[in-house]
Amino acid sequence: MTPRKPAAPPRRWPNAAIADWDGTVAGARALQLELASKVELRDRFPRSLAWIAGVDVGFEDAGATTRAAAVLLDGPSLQVLQSVVVRMPTTMPYIPGLLSFRELPALLEAASRLQHAPELVLVDGQGIAHPRRLGIASHFGVASGLPTIGVAKSVLVGTFAALHQTRGAYTPLRDGREQVGWALRSKPGCNPLFVSPGHRVAMASAAELVMRCVTTYRLPEPTRLADRLASRRDRAFPA
User: Fold this and answer.
1) Is residue 122 part of a domain?
2) Model's pTM, two decimal places?
3) What domain count does the chain have?
4) Is 5 inside any structural domain?
């Protein structure tokens, strides 16, 4: 079999996350609705994933500095190929429902430095499981064009039925009558994860793709490792 040709590095996305934002809360919410209409909920990634990335954000200097982490993994083995940490001045306070406007510029910069364009990105946060159907994973996906899934530790919107303790069990997360994601039992005895497609990933595929990346921990490897870097818990990486 001929080895797959390496993908070109992802393009840089300067200000792509908030380029059309007027700086107001009302303007951000309006832009979310506009961008949500561009989200694609169908699979647009290779059947055999060569490169998977995880991204997450933490903060330093009492919140004055945004610390974004991107980790590139080999798809079949989940071995780490590259880790990137980017620091940028924090330019926006935390506003519920508008997390992506605060974090996305740094996340896009970190992802742009990966040596291969990831074929799937797991984002620590929500995909379409968001009041305006544009969580940070969806915003990242639309801005970058990369397939994304949101992997959140808590619910932002939606309810779900009782979930079996079996590893890999999942049940729909619904906001009213609309399914916006899955409650996923990634590890028995632990609270579920809340998985929602971000962009270019179908609802039916999201939970299975996340479980492909789960080893012995509650979190899938891409976001687990990105979280450790973003929160400075991984001392193997230069601070």
Assistant:
1) yes
2) 0.91
3) 1
4) no
Q: Look up residue 153 and give its two tokens.
A: 């530790």
Is residue 176 a part of any domain in this protein?
A: yes
Instruction: Tell me the residue range of the domain where 163 lies.
Output: 25-230
CATH code of residue 157: 3.30.2170.10
The one-digit pLDDT tens for each residue of the chain (239 residues) are 444 444 444 455 545 556 678 788 999 999 999 999 999 999 999 989 999 999 999 999 999 999 999 999 999 999 999 999 999 999 888 899 999 999 999 999 999 999 999 999 999 999 999 999 999 999 999 999 999 999 999 999 999 999 999 999 999 999 999 999 999 999 999 999 999 999 999 999 999 999 999 999 999 999 999 999 998 765 555 44
Residue 79 lies in a domain: yes
